[in-house]
Structure formats: structure tokens, C-alpha cells
Design goal:
Blueprint: E1 2-6, E2 19-22, E3 32-41, H1 44-52, E4 61-62, E5 67-74, E6 86-89, E7 102-106, E8 110-112, H2 119-123, H3 126-139, E9 152-156, H4 161-173, E10 177-181, H5 185-194, E11 198-200, H6 206-212, E12 218-223, H7 227-237, E13 238-246, E14 264-267, H8 272-276, H9 283-296, E15 304-307, H10 313-325, E16 331-335
Parallel strand pairs: 9-10, 9-12, 10-11, 12-13, 13-14, 15-16
Antiparallel strand pairs: 1-2, 1-4, 3-5, 3-7, 3-16, 5-6, 6-8
Helix pairs in contact: 3-4, 3-9
Length: 337
């Protein structure tokens, strides 16, 4: 089967940073689906792994953790899907990725593809939707479905893939006032389109920016980028007994400034459930079911902003470079081999 991968980690401008290759078709495990991949999207995790994680000597590493496709075969313990089903999912960090014609994935982290989306648009959704949902409801424990509770959610880095979905979910499924940060005209316009009540500039002091829109304190802070740089500002603007959730990878992160307000600090990693096969691993299947239903009902929109051609090394290199530039808005997708 056709696939795209690498043999040694390194910068994206190296000629062999990503290469086209032929690999054997994977054999499904008992609870696996074998999926014929129709489209994939690129996420920051792709660039982080490609630049730092070395495959075993002489072996290739295939990246990709977002996909939409058709189930070709199932393992003998599969109960949730059958061949011919259209699906979307975000995969598992410890297994080969989705940048391949055929991909094996555990059914417990797979959802039914939204019928209203084409392959491209559907592939943009799973990883960021799972991350945003788990961050908001499982980690930060925002009140799901309660529209009258009030409170403020500050989303730092609202124009990226996770922020774009998080803003929508918070508007749809909570009563929180959603304040998102962005700094360029195009990103400001984007987060407003996603549904943010207010937009502030994260290149300016966040405390002053909140005060300028009449917001005193944030009950929830979703820090999606530059958490270490914004920590002291967050310590000032977060409400006593507030919750801070983060998804990025600061080199160090000293949370002592948050102690006097008894702030809860939580991390979200979408791969935790699949990596450790937690008892609630099937929760990701259920989340994707609900996300799919929200999309098909017209309440949640894909965050795809760019469909950049077929799945091959040259196109994936371009999308990795785009992500690493820090200029990406929403999600970029590739479809077909």
C-alpha cells in the first residue's frame, strides 16, 4: 500500500523529512477496523513527532492522526462497525498513523462520519473535536448543556484547530461567555465566525484586554498555546477557585502563582485514553458520535480552511511547514492517493 513516512527525525526542509513509500497492509487486531483512508488532516503533533521521534533502526514511521474513510474489514471482536461503514477518527499515538492507504484502528476511538460532510471536511474534525470536548467537559468539568449558569471561558489561541472547535462547543453546550484571543485581522475575523462573544489580543496584556471589554475575571481558562508566557497574566485574571486547562508543551511550568486562588490546573492529551487503554476508552467513540450528530444537525461546523491536494510527501511537507510557521488558521486537509 502507498504511505508517507520518514526514517530519521529532522527539520521539514530536509529532502528526506517525509518520503513516499510502499508498506505492507496492516493486520487488524481483534477490536480493530481496517480503514481505507480517504482524507487526512495535519496537526501540531505531526510536526512534533516528525522533528524529534526516531523510528526503530531501519524502519519507517508513518504519521497522521486524523482520517476519514471506509471500513474494509473488522477484527473478530468488533461490535460497533461493519465493512462499508463510513468513519472518522484521530488514531492512537503509539500506533502507525493515517498517512497510508489502509489503516488499522481500535473501534473504541472511531465515530460515524458526518453524512453532511465530504471526506475532506470530515477529516478536519476528529482530533481537535476530541481534544476540545475532553478539555472542556472531562478535564475542566464545565457544566455540559447548562445554559443559565453564567461564567466566563477565556480561550487563549482561539484561531487554531482546537480553539476553533472549543469556541463552538462552548457556545452550543454551555452558558459560558466565550472570550477568545487572536492578534491578526484574519484570525480575529475567524474566531468571531466560530462564535466567540468577545475577541481580545494576546499580544497585549490580557488583564487590560479583559478589563477593556468589561470582563472582570475568567472562571475557566483554556490555554492552548504559550501557556508559560501567559502564566502570570492568567494568575491575575482567573477567578478564585477557577480552572485552568492546557494542551501545549511548555519546557517548564511553575504553577505556584495560582496557589493563592486555589486554582485547579489540568492537562488534556487526547491520546491518554488510547495509550493506556483506560476503562473509559470507548468515551471517544461516544464523543465522536455526538460531534457527528451536531455537524449533521447544522449546529457544529468543520474547521477545514484548506484542501491542499492528494496525500503525498510533497503536499504533507507543505502543510507541516505551514503549521510550523505559526500562520495556520483552522485545519488543512489532503484527500486521496
Amino acid at each position: 500500500m502507498k504511505a508517507v513516512g520518514y526514517y530519521a527525525p529532522g527539520p521539514i526542509d530536509r529532502p528526506d523529512s517525509l518520503v513516499d513509500m510502499e508498506l505492507p497492509t496492516p493486520t487488524p487486531r481483534p477490536r480493530d477496523l481496517l480503514v481505507r483512508v480517504k482524507a487526512v488532516s495535519v496537526n501540531p503533533i505531526d510536526t512534533k513527532v516528525r522533528s524529534s521521534a526516531a523510528p526503530a533502526q531501519g524502519e519507517a514511521r508513518v504519521l497522521g492522526w486524523d482520517a476519514s474513510g471506509v471500513v474494509e474489514a473488522v477484527g473478530d471482536q468488533v461490535t460497533l462497525f461493519r465493512p462499508g461503514d463510513e468513519v472518522f477518527y484521530a488514531g492512537a499515538l503509539q500506533r502507525p498513523g493515517t498517512n497510508a492507504e489502509l489503516h488499522a484502528v481500535d473501534e473504541r476511538i472511531v465515530g460515524p462520519k458526518p453524512r453532511s460532510l465530504d471526506w475532506d471536511a470530515a477529516a478536519a474534525v476528529p482530533l481537535t473535536a476530541l481534544t476540545a470536548w475532553e478539555l472542556l467537559f472531562d478535564r475542566m468539568r464545565a457544566p455540559y448543556g447548562e445554559k443559565t449558569t453564567g461564567g466566563v471561558l477565556l480561550v487563549i489561541g482561539g484561531a487554531g484547530g482546537v480553539g476553533s472547535i472549543l469556541i463552538q462547543l462552548a457556545r452550543l453546550l454551555t452558558g459560558l461567555t466565550v472570550v477568545a484571543t487572536a492578534s491578526r485581522p484574519e484570525t480575529i475575523a475567524w474566531v468571531r465566525t466560530m462564535g466567540a462573544h468577545h475577541v481580545i489580543n494576546h499580544r497585549k496584556p490580557l488583564n487590560d484586554e479583559l478589563a477593556a471589554i468589561g470582563v472582570g475575571k475568567a472562571d475557566y481558562v483554556a490555554s492552548l498555546t504559550a501557556s508559560d508566557r501567559h502564566l502570570l497574566a492568567i494568575a491575575e485574571l482567573i477567578a478564585p477557585e477557577g480552572v485552568m486547562g492546557l494542551i501545549d508543551d511548555p519546557t517548564t511550568f511553575d504553577i505556584m502563582p495560582l496557589k493563592r486562588k486555589s486554582v485547579t490546573v489540568c492537562w488534556e492529551l487526547m491520546y491518554t485514553r488510547s495509550m493506556f487503554e483506560t476503562p473509559d476508552m470507548v468515551a471517544q467513540h461516544r464523543i465522536l458520535e455526538e460531534v457527528s450528530a451536531l455537524v449533521d444537525s447544522g449546529l457544529l461546523r468543520t474547521t477545514m480552511t484548506r484542501s491542499a491536494g492528494p496525500i503525498n510527501a510533497a503536499n504533507l511537507k507543505k502543510l507541516h511547514a505551514l503549521l510550523e510557521s505559526g500562520e495556520a488558521i483552522g485545519k488543512a486537509v489532503l484527500a486521496g492517493f
